[in-house]
Write a structure and sequence with these properties.
The chain has 131 residues and is an all-alpha fold. It is 54% helix and 0% strand. The chain has a single domain, classed as Alpha Horseshoe (Serine Threonine Protein Phosphatase 5, Tetratricopeptide repeat).
Length: 131
Amino acid sequence: MTDGLDDATLAFAHRMFDLARAGSTDELVAQVDAGLPVDLTNDKGDTLLILAAYHNHPSTVAGLLARGADPDRANDRGQTALAAAVFRQNAVSVRALLSAGASPAAGGPSALDTAAFFKLPEMASFLRGES
């Protein structure tokens, strides 16, 4: 992410990732609406959506999905937003991601793998469409 970017641009990008982590939905989606790439990634491949899901902010997840965030994009470790939401056991985010077309089998470990590894039967049920 740092190739050829000046300090001000890097600081702005870091602030956007912090907004996703903090669940500052209104400010973050306003930036996306103003032209910020919705699938912006950091140096680890984490997207704004992955960070929002991992830090348990379903309204931010929904806002990013509504603006076209890729629900199956994986970070450099193969993790997806859906796997993060499953890990956090956030049914609202899981449902939003599934409704946006996220695949329970995408990534590695996938959301299904995550539910099985951490023994999360309720999350596995959501992923199989049983709830």
